[in-house]
Amino acid sequence: MAAARFLVSGRVQGVCFRASTREQALALGLRGVARNLADGRVEVIACGEQEAIAMLERWLHEGPPAARVEQVLRESCAEWTGVGFSTA
Prior knowledge:
Layout: E1 2-11, H1 17-27, E2 31-36, E3 42-48, H2 50-60, E4 68-76, E5 85-86
Parallel strand pairs: 2-5
Antiparallel strand pairs: 1-3, 1-4, 2-3
């Protein structure tokens, strides 16, 4: 099991970014969370197979149609202990 934390910046709040991320993550069999940060970014924590995390990372660079992703930063993190994929 692998885990990664992503910080996505740009026009990523108020454009269904978290809900779309959840759909993508669940389709890839990932667990984790997508949540808005006070600074306007979206934090995504994903846990699962490394290949699935890499696929989600590629999708995060595009996001849903209304989003304008400017940057995606990836960090290592501890495995997500929650169940499923939430949009906190």
